[in-house]
Amino acid sequence: MTLLVVQALNGVQLGLLLFLIAAGLTLVFGVMDFINLAHGVQYMLGAYLGVAFAGLTGSFWLGLLLASVVAGVTGIALERLVFRHLYGRSHLDQVLATFGVILTLNEAVRVLWGTAPLQMPMPDALSGSFQLMEGLRYPVYRVALIVAGLLVAVGLAWAVNCTRAGMLIRAGASNAAMVSALGVDIGRLFTLVFGIGAMLAGFAGVMAAPLVSVEPSMGDNLLILAFVVIVIGGVGAIRGAFVAALMVGLVDTLGRTMVTDAFKAALGASAAARVGPAVASMLIYLVMAAVLAIRPAGLFPAARDA
Amino acid sequence: MNRLVPLLAFAALAAVPFIPFGREGGYVLLLVSRVMVFALAAISLDLLLGGGGMVSFGHAAYLAIGAYAVAILDANDVSEAWAVLAAALGAAALFAAGTGAVALRTRGVNFIMITLAFAQMVYFAAGSLAAYGGDDGYSLIARTELFGWPVLKGRGFYATAFVLLLAGYLLCRMLVASRFGRVLRAIRQNRQRVQAMGFNPFTVQLTAMVIAGMLCAVAGVLLANLSEFASPAYATWQRSGDLLIMVILGGAGSLHGALLGAAFVVLLEEALGRLTEHWRLIFGPLLVLSVLYFRGGLAGIGAKRD
């Protein structure tokens, strides 16, 4: 039971992390109709920048702030230099060009920081653990991550639903040409959306850094998960991304313990140890295939005028 | 142009074993063999992409299926070509039919992502085959033989790969020119009209996926023999991305473009890899630039624009 609670909390935490990344991805996709494979790189870059800035300034918080800002600026620079020219091109061209950006930036990080994984020290205020219930201690930092994720989710929902910029973003997602015809500088709107997305991914990278090893490939793995999230949630929908992110986080984390346990009961311990992890890794893809088989447009597809 | 380029390309491939490269001879044969293996995989992907407009981001799964057919039979002391081919083709056809039936319910970006998800499942499944090396991969005991005759050793490999590539190319060319190919292209342009004319788009597209998957599995069989190794890494999404790059750089839809693209990518990787270990730092920007400024691909050079 205690294990289940811990796993559920870890699942929520992974889900919120995924949401931070998927939110930017789904906004960019919804508004610009642009598939950005390089979004995972922003997350990875955020983690590296966080380590670098935290080392320079000696403070986790300054590192978090600086890294998020620089990640956002990098995203805007990439948008101006490369991605802007790919709007309106086929999805295939976008996939290839952003794949090229991944190769370049991953390799650049290898050149700058080396291939060995880096460690990010946890901030003192949030290290340690506390008593969650009888016989169960839970790390403070993971709770902080959950809280931060929820705050960002609420903030984003408010920004998209209640501000003028958010209104334009929603309008852009349903019909970009019309928004542009009504006198909105659509180019600036796109840059804004891109910058926000990149900053959120960078922020997620710094927040995740103390819990994982910081290495060049860390973005690739999360990118695929984030795509699973936005496809399940319905492309372009923030609410869908939120629900799907929690779903994927929980399925993945709980699946890893429960599937192995289930196989242990059915097949015996040694066979379960072999088959369990593989099936658990596949679980979210099975969920995705099942969702798409029943609802080909995802759970909450954004309303879109052709 | 459409006849001359492929004719020249295949003539060049046929001539390579007879050119005296001196001490480098073995290395050149190996490198060009690798080109041919990936060319076969890329041509099969072009059948889907150029022919049917189906952007499969999981085609590398079939490379792994072919390779593991070799590995699993090898571990059970079977290296007879007919048995290996039957297993590889059967497994690929089953996988393509099963996953295709689900994937074809979706369109656009969701199709890209669901094919990616299925390839990820193959990747994790291959990693879980503890009896066949698990994540580390499996080293072959013996190469595949035809009636006990070592057709895939030394120059024999080159000759076999050449024949299979030529046969695969001619088969795809025939398919594209046939009524089946015309219907496939028509679905891409106007699905409803094809339906109104009494064809079932789903069946036609699924058939194309099965054929392309089986062809790519043959490339997988060759790849496993070439490196005497089968690994889950054959099914990574980066590998699927590589195949897409080959097809697009070569020029989607022309089939021989996939051949040129495969040659270009494999040889460029090799050349840059000799230059610096950080060759991706050059390859990545090249890829971005080629997508931005070099539409139509290699096969489009000199060809009339329609």
Q: What is the compact description of this entry?
A:
Chain A is an all-alpha fold and 306 residues long.
- Across the major sheet of chain B, the strand order is 1-2
Number of strands of chain B: 2
- Stretches of chain A where pLDDT is under 50 for at least 5 consecutive residues are none
Fraction of residues in H or I helices of chain A: over 70%
Membrane topology (chain A): Multi-pass membrane protein
Keywords (chain A): Amino-acid transport, Cell membrane, Membrane, Transmembrane, Transmembrane helix, Transport
Family (chain A): Belongs to the binding-protein-dependent transport system permease family. LivHM subfamily.
Main location (chain A): membrane
Layout of strands and helices, then pairs:
The complex is a heterodimer of chains A (306) and B (306).
Chain A: H1 2-32, H2 39-57, H3 60-81, H4 91-113, E1 129-133, E2 136-139, H5 140-162, H6 164-174, H7 176-181, H8 186-208, H9 218-233, H10 238-267, H11 269-294
Antiparallel strand pairs in A: 1-2
Helix pairs in contact in A: 1-5, 1-6, 1-8, 1-9, 1-10, 2-3, 2-4, 2-8, 2-9, 3-8, 5-6, 9-10, 9-11, 10-11
Chain B: H1 4-15, H2 25-52, H3 60-75, H4 81-103, H5 108-127, E1 138-139, H6 155-177, H7 179-189, H8 191-196, H9 201-227, E2 229-230, H10 237-250, H11 256-275, H12 280-293
Antiparallel strand pairs in B: 1-2
Helix pairs in contact in B: 2-6, 2-9, 2-10, 2-11, 3-4, 3-5, 3-9, 4-9, 6-7, 6-9, 7-9, 10-11
Family (chain A): Belongs to the binding-protein-dependent transport system permease family. LivHM subfamily.
Transmembrane segments (chain A): 12-30, 37-54, 60-83, 95-113, 140-160, 190-212, 224-251, 271-294
Subcellular location (chain A): Cell membrane
